[in-house]
Design brief:
470 residues, 71% helix
Amino acid sequence: MGIFTRRFATQSHMARRYAGQETQTKDLRTTQLTLMTVGGIIGSGLFLASGQAIHDAGPGLVIAYLIGATAMAIEMTALAEMSAADPRQGSFLVYARQALGPGFTFVGGWIFWFSSVLNLAAEATAAATFATLWLHLPTWILSSAVALTISGVNFLTVKGFGEVESGMSVIKLLAVALFILLAAAAVFLAWPLHLGHGALSWSLHGGFLPHGVAGIGAAMILVMFSMSGTGVLGLAAADVQRPERTIGRAVRYATLSVYLLYIGSVLAITAIVGWQAVPATGQSPFLAALHRTGMPWTVDVFNVVILLAVLSAMNAGMFATDRVLAGLSRAGDAPRALARMPGGIPRAANAVTGALLLIVSLLTYFLPKTAFLYLVTATGFQAIFVWMLIIATQIYYRRWLVEHRPNHLRLKLAFHPWLGRFELVLLAAIVATAPLAPRQLLPLGIGVGATALFAVAYLVQRRRRAAAQA
């Protein structure tokens, strides 16, 4: 219980920072930061979107997860390098403004906010999907109810927020680990469950790569969505003791956890169910696997866990998204009214975020079967843009640190600048896989269109400021 209490104190401190009430308390340690990071990453991308990803790549999805987790590790290390050298509240946007200029910060900040809203809508749709196991209502009604509830909760005090989030992170990690162990017992100890072919499933129905390398490419955007919640590292940097040590360890532990849990989950699901029988949409592949255990109660228990996990992730996401919008307002990049935080709560920003979240959540009314995949794919493309911006920021910010604060550069991304450049090429190659899955072309267009719109908005704003100063 101690770690939950410390996390509560830390999150309360973070809320005071956002409210402008500075303190010097630095009480976030490796365990808490690792839990926060892994908890932010694991959500509906693993629990629901993995079904479509398995259909695209088969058991070979483990290769896509290896690629995605490696890209994630590089991105997190780049962010950790900047955060450890200059631990300030505001995540990568603080460093992007100094390294790349106000234009990239404006566009990056708005893309970050917009992609966060899409991600919240995807989580709301996933929560609605899980809830239909007990509530036989249309998905659009349930997803709208979830969006309204989470928005309403964020009008209230942040007291207890950190304790709940840490607790849910632990439960979520334990649930996935226990699922993998159960599957391993069934496959390798010949537990008399209702299995198909067990480990042989990895070589049947087209083999380990039933759709070849193209299948891996088609799944990559869904993989990137499932690993996109890494921004907590930057948001928590100012609350960390010994940043170079704590953040570095958290990155390593979080990366190792993602490798083990994601790859283990895919192998477990495809061994129990067989990749061709995994539901692509409408049901979690974890629940489909648990149906084969001969223990029906495990389905309800796990569904409760993943439903609460998604709601918890939404609450944390809304908490951060509202404050990013308020931060844009304080920087002069959004209407001034959105910066107001009475009692430490960005009520105006929450109202705007909640309104757009509700509108996007209603997409399930028009596209009940495909809305979730459209949302996660669009979010995946937006996440790639943000990651590319983080890497570009690190490349240029390293130069500034070497010149002005060389003693602060204690945690480094290796093989600079070549590893960063490799990451940019890798991320661009992942975007180029969009034509391999036709469903990804519309979300890609939305991402490109949103980026162009925010770029035009920045040019208009710059012209107005120049005219006002003339």
